[in-house]
Structures are given as C-alpha cells and as structure tokens.
Write a structure and sequence with these properties.
Length: about 425
C-alpha cells in the first residue's frame, strides 16, 4: 500500500542512511470493535507500534469472538478478551453501592466505574506482554480519557499512554474515509447518531439530538427500559436482602452479584424504571447532556438507602452523605485509585456493619418506591415511635431538654431583640374571630 495514513511523512520504520532498524514498541489498546478503535489499530501500526488489542466483557452482550477476530484482521498482532463482569461488580460497583455514590444526585456512575477496571486489566496485560504503553480511543473532550490516564499513572507510572483520537484530528467522515482507504470494514453502529457506552451498572447515551437540552429524548435512545405507557397495568414488587450493606438475596432466595444485577435490570426495565436525563458537569469544565438507563442501579441504591435509614445512627447517616458525594465526585473525576478513595472506603465499611435486612420495592410505570424495610438491627423502635399503646417514651423528659436546647435562642431574643432580619409585618392578614 503506497498511500499510508499521515501521507508517509513520519512513518516509523522509514530508514535514513545506514541507521539500524527501529526497535518495535508494543502497546495495549482498549478495543471495542467500533470505528474509532479499529481505525486506531491501523493508525498506531503506522506510527510504529506493535498493537495488542484488549477487550473486556462488562456485561454489554457483544459478540466477543467477532471483536477478537476483527482486531487481528484490522492489524493487531494479538487480541485479548477478558471477562470482567464479576470483578466489576465486586470490586467497583459493590463498594460504590455501599457508599451510596451518585454523581450530582442523578448518575449512578456506570461508565465511570468501568474505566478504572479496564485500565487496571490493561496494565496487567502490558506487564505480561512487555508493552511500554497503553492506548485508548477516548476523545480529548470527555471524562474517560482522564480515567484511563490517571488509573494508568496510579498503577503503572512507567507506562506511556497514547490516545490516537486526541491526536489525529480526524472527524467521523475522515475516519470513515480512512477506514475505506485501508480496507477496514465500517461497523453498522457507525450510522447511529448516538454515542453509547454500556455495562452491567447502566447504559450511557449521548450526542445526536440529545445535544439540545430542550429536546425530549426520542424513544429510540432507550434499549433497556420500556416506555411507561407500555408497562404492565399492575405494579411489580421486588424484595432485596442485604448483608452488611451488600445485596445477597432476591425475593427471599440467595443470589450472586451477576444474577442479581442482571435480574434487576430486566425487572426494572420492564417497569420502565431507571431512565435518567442528566445535564452534567464534566471534569474538564464542559456541561453535557447524557441519558442513562440504569434499572438495577436505581433499585439497589434506593433499597440500600432505605435500609440505612432504619439502621444508621443519625450522625453517621448525615456524615456518610458527605462521604457519598465525595466518593461519587472522585470516581467521576478518575480518582478511583487514590489514597483518599481508599481511606473513604475504610469509613464506608465501618458504617455497613449493621446494614443487614430486607427492603421491598414497588415498581410501576416508570417509577419505583420503597414500600417496606426491616432489619434485625434496626434502630427504628416501635416502642419509642408509636402513638399507640406500648409507648415507653417519657414525654415529660422533653420539656427540660427543650428548655436547654432553646436556651441560646431565648437569650439572644431577650438581650438583643427580634431574631428575624426583616419585619414579619401582618402575617395574619384578615382573620375570622368569634367570641362572646
Ligand atoms: N458522561 C458519562 C461519564 O462521563 C458517560 C460517558 C460515556 N458516554 C457515552 N455515551 N459514550 O461517565
């Protein structure tokens, strides 16, 4: 082939004079099988890299054999396929569920949690293969590049990171042209106007018409969740059992992580649960609009929260909210592997000791609600809460407590006067008064 990418200008392997042939350097590329990373294989080869493709299954139901074969066909010298589903759930998703991590009150972090695992696995492949770099197909505008780069820095600072899409300056049409020119088959998904990412914890959809934040997402963007109008007319119920903050049973039967999340994605999706429309703040300062489908994540986060509501002491619960926010932000910002996230986890684990029990959820036409919760360790005590018989609460103790509780306010009012900044004026307005 005469006309290579880059116009033959800085082709590796081009020899000047009598210098020795260049040492071929190896890298491990995160390979999805899509257009970007397929073009990347060829582009990297032309830059002189020996490319090892790496694909990991995080539950996206892709034809992994076909992806592996395609990597070799396009020019990789080896292609790995790994099953990351269990490590993803156990090492990344479960701790984040225990933490209660939701980014900006909306996003359960599916994509963000997947990246550090993928990068960590690639580091392992790089070591096994004696590669000196890892590569990914992320753009220079998103969060994912940060997650790959920083994870690599944290786990293998000696490895270089190469990001072809950040460098090559090709738009989609250029890429298709490049692919055609190099005999790279353009995948069917390339025609979709949307960019999607998916794993067991959720599906992310952006671009196309979604870039207009005023535009309602068209039905076609959803793949996991039913339109509420097409949902059953009867509610569905699920019961999730937890042990120390981790879900262990579904409807009373013990179940493993993978089966549980798969089942809840299906059950939730059928009731239209888990659709999220989020304008989010990317780390690099851009606001973007992303649609998420995350039925299992929404249900499990809801259930876990409900169990914490009856088992965590007030002060722990309040402080843990701050930790959850910090955790979510760190995961989003690519800092999974960091000293602070490790330290936060020690706190989270300590809080989960009594988060054991069952939660019942009701799913109906796009929404889900907790309708029951119980725990052998619950701090909710009927004898204290009840207004009925069996009340053991000593109401007379309240008076003295409140006298001290309000002491500061009373003193301020007595010494310094009115405590509200502006005149409350005539709050009563016209009142009806009857008297004799
Ligand atoms: N905005 C999400 C995040 O940064 C998802 C990114 C990937 N989205 C996509 N549609 N490819 O975690």
């Amino acid at each position: 082939m005469s006309n290579r990418g880059g116009g033959g200008r800085d082709l590796p392997g081009r020899r000047s004079g009598g210098s020795p042939p260049p040492v071929v350097k190896k890298l491990v590329l995160a390979y999805s099988g899509g257009l970007d990373t397929s073009v990347a294989i060829r582009w990297l080869k032309d830059k002189g890299w020996d490319v090892i493709a790496f694909t990991v299954d995080l539950g996206e139901k892709k034809d992994l054999d076909a992806i592996q074969a395609r990597a070799l066909k396009v020019g990789a010298s080896a292609a790995y396929v790994a099953d990351g589903r269990i490590p993803f759930l156990e090492l990344f998703v479960w701790p984040s569920l225990q933490a209660g991590a939701v980014y900006e009150k909306e996003y359960p972090l599916a994509t963000a949690l997947g990246r550090p695992l993928i990068a960590a696995m690639m580091v392992e492949v790089a070591r096994r293969e004696g590669a000196s770099a890892i590569a990914h197909g992320c753009t220079g505008k998103g969060n994912d590049q940060v997650r790959f780069d920083v994870t690599t820095a944290a786990l293998a600072p000696e490895l270089e990171v190469v990001a072809p899409v950040r460098e090559w300056g090709m738009n989609r049409d250029d890429e298709i042209e490049y692919a055609n020119k190099h005999g790279i088959e353009v995948p069917a998904t390339t025609r979709s106007p949307y960019s999607t990412d998916e794993n067991l914890w959720g599906r992310s959809i952006e671009a196309g018409v979604l870039e207009d934040p005023w535009a309602e997402p068209p039905a076609e963007v959803y793949a996991w969740t039913r339109d509420p109008r097409q949902c059953p007319d009867e509610p569905a119920y699920v019961e999730v059992g937890f042990n120390e903050g981790l879900p262990v049973s579904l409807d009373g039967k013990a179940i493993g992580a993978l089966d549980l999340v798969t089942a809840l994605n299906k059950i939730g999706g059928e009731s239209g649960v888990g659709r999220i429309d989020h304008i989010e703040n990317r780390l690099i300062g851009i606001k973007s609009r992303e649609i998420y489908e995350a039925p299992a994540a929404v249900l499990l986060l809801q259930a876990h929260q409900a169990l914490e509501d009856i088992t965590l002491p007030k002060e722990v619960a309040r402080f843990k909210d701050l930790v959850a926010q910090q955790w979510a932000q760190m995961v989003y910002d690519g800092l999974w592997f960091s000293p602070l996230r490790d330290a936060l986890y020690a706190f989270v684990v300590e809080t989960q000791r009594h988060v054991t029990g069952d939660v019942r959820l009701k799913l109906f036409k796009g929404s889900s609600h907790v309708v029951g919760r119980k725990s052998p360790m619950q701090l909710y005590q009927l004898s204290l809460a009840t207004y009925g018989k069996g009340d053991v609460f000593d109401q007379s103790a309240a008076a003295g407590f409140i006298k001290l509780w309000g002491m500061g306010v009373r003193t301020s009012a007595q010494v310094q006067g009115r405590l509200h900044g502006r005149d409350l004026g005539n709050l009563l307005g016209e009142v009806k008064r009857l008297g004799k």
